[in-house]
Design brief:
- It is a single chain.
- This protein is of the alpha/beta class and 222 residues long.
- The protein has a single domain (4-208), classed as Aldolase class I (TIM Barrel, Alpha-Beta Barrel).
- It is built from nine helices and eight strands.
- The protein has helices spanning 25-34, 49-65, 76-82, 96-103, 116-124, 148-158, 174-179, 189-192, 197-208, and strands at 10-15, 39-42, 69-73, 86-89, 108-113, 129-132, 163-166, 184-187.
- An eight-stranded parallel β-barrel has the order 1-2-3-4-5-6-7-8, surrounded by seven helices.
- Helix 1 (25-34) packs across helix 9.
- The chain is globular and about 40 Å long.
- The N and C termini lie close together (5 Å).
Length: 222
Amino acid sequence: MTGPGQKICGLYLISDTAFSRGRTHEEIVRAGLSGGARVIQLREKKLSLHELYPVALRIREMTREADAALIINDSIELAMAIGADGVHLGQEDMPAGVARRLLGPDKIIGVSTHTIEEALVAQGEGADYIGFGPIYKTDTKGSGEPKGPEGLRAIREKIKVPVVAIGGIDAGNARVVIDAGADAVAVISAVVSAENIEKAAREIARVVTPHPNPSPARRGEL
């Protein structure tokens, strides 16, 4: 696999202070990176862009030092302002094709999807990866019934870009999700709400770290 999406693999940690037990984004990200997260998504619903900008700048430096990708949730403006690796968009956000014209060819664009049809549309519009879920029951991803590993396998058969699975994933089921075809697992509460963020991240990262020579079948012939 070549192109911006090649950075999307392993543990994809979503930093959201709504689930952090009072810890800051900087604390979450520092511990998550130490635990092996390869992708950080900065998601913050309570702060204005003005308030979030200096936080995002600090996290940009942290991810650069760790050679990890930084994805900004929803805000193309913030992603451009701090030089983030890319942006993650929801179904109600700007279409991926429009985001591509604004961001250029080298930035990562991810799109949340909940059906094969949505995933195919996102891929057709130029998304570098799709987020798909919820895989398991979760309180942090209200997107209908859990899809399960079988739903993930169905997506993998149709989608050629990386697939990031989300929803109810933890150290106990992360390997099942990877074996079902996910390139990365996105987690929020399993890590961000843990008493020890670094330890929780390491437990998941240990079972989802990409194999150096993935088989064409498991990687969708990427």
